[in-house]
Amino acid sequence: MRFNHVANRLNPTHFETVVALFTTQLGFTVLRRTERAIWLRQPGANIDLQFSRSETAGRDVDKQRSQVSFLSETPREDLKALAAWAAGRGLAATIGAYSGREFYLDAPDAFVDFVIEAMRPELADYPLDE
User: Fold this and answer.
1) How many domains is the chain partitioned into structurally?
2) In the 3-class helix/strand/coil scheme, how is 19-37 assigned residue by residue?
3) How many helices (H) and strands (E) does the chain have?
4) 37-84 confidence digits (pLDDT tens)
5) Which residues on neighbouring strands pair with residue 51, listed in sequence order?
6) What InterPro entries does its record include (predicted)?
7) What is the maximal distance between C-alpha atoms in the chain?
């Protein structure tokens, strides 16, 4: 088997706003869209992201352990810019930190089961044992 995509859930009320955040602010392109879901890819990436509409009333209280993760030289600042963009469209977002090098953005009214993480590139420098 070969890895294809990861799927996360969004509140339908904010579905299009989150899609716009990923396409206009993070450069993702739309690969496919149905009534319930959308598949996106960031240029240069080799994995896709699917968002599905979810009517789930309760949010996962431990969702900070489920992330759509990005590398950034300025992770906190980049997430602050995304939070400001979302706020300008009526979607409240907050920034939290796992450490001084890895941060997350939560938009609790929109994200059902994940947060957006941004971390310094050196945190993804994993040694490969062959």
Assistant:
1) 1
2) HHHHHHHCCCEEEEECCCE
3) 2, 8
4) 999 999 998 889 999 999 886 677 788 889 999 999 999 999 999 999
5) 8, 38
6) Glyas_Bleomycin-R_OHBP_Dase
7) 48
Cα angle 105, 91, 32; round to 5: 80
- Identify the band that residue 130 occupies on the pLDDT scale cut at 50, 70 and 90: low
Instruction: Output the pLDDT for position 36.
Output: 95
What CATH number does residue 66 fall under? Answer: 3.10.180.10
Tell me: the pLDDT tens digits for 8-21? 999 999 999 999 99
45: domain range?
A: 5-124
0.85 surpassed by pTM: yes
Sheet of strand 5-10, all strands in order from the earlier edge strand to the far edge: 5-10, 48-53, 37-41, 29-33
Query: For residue 120, what are its two tokens?
Result: 């310094």
Decide the pairing of beta strands 48-53 and 37-41: antiparallel
Decide if 96 is inside a domain: yes
Residue ranges of E strands in 35-77: 37-41, 48-53, 67-71
* Dihedral sign (CA 16, 17, 21, 24): positive
Residue 130 lies in a domain: no
Structure tokens at 123: 């945190």
